[in-house]
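Let's practice the habit of predicting before peeking. Look at the sequence and jot down your guess about where helices and strands might fall. Then scroll down.
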Amino acid sequence: MITLDAHAKLNLTLEAVRRREDGYHETVSIMQTLELADIVTIEPSNSLELTCDASGIRREENLAWQAAQTLRAETGIADGARIGIRKRIPVSAGLGGGSSDAAAALVGLNRLWKLGMSGDELRSIGARIGSDVPFLIDGGTAIALGRGERIRDLPNPNLPYFVLAFPEVDMPNKTATMYSALTSGDFTRGALGRKLEARIRNGGDVPPQFLFNVFDSTARIRLPEVKRCWDDMHAAGAREIHISGSGPTIYAAVERREMATAIQLVMEKIKGWKSLTTRAWPNPQTATG
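Done guessing? Here is the structure:
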């Protein structure tokens, strides 16, 4: 059995540059994987099977299932596999959980089926599954361009703790709906992401004022639960709060673990929001190689 951690991601920056002719948006984003992760297991089987402990996700809608089917079609392999997913990342939360499961499935099946595909080949296949999948093949820190399929890896910066809170929002086709709400006034040139990229490459830190998400205002206007959660996190002591992805997850960057723990406890025990504290993965203080 192959066991893989499928790490969640945060968008440290997310800028929308323009709406493309294919209907997608051109974006510039600094992305970071987190210690928070689903567990994906892959083992031999006579047929292709998938189990997931999260309810409400049809097999055909599961991105790991789509990744397996796409990989088989691309390579012509007829082998089977049993894919199991233990969810720890909230579903449809803007944390890339489904995309990370898909990336882990591609990596694991490449190993199980002895396909010998390179990372670039897996990223190319992953781009057909979802915009975040190419980045999540390797994770870490990177700038993602285009629809997210053009990845430039970055050194791991020294990042603070992150407090995450999860407002519950029922919005069908959430990502498409949120992007459709953007206007030309929300578009930027991607300068903030590229400036932070240069800073990280030169060994700099990630100052709070560099964090940005084009949906920060839109989500609070369109999603009352997000605004309420945001206000509660601010009242709990967080000052640098942002949306991840297209939401609804919000996060606060907090320098000290004690402060992060205190904010998280207030959010969960007093304010009643599902919340957790996590760190960047890989953590540059413990990563080797």
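How did you do? Residues 97-112 form the longest helix (16 residues).
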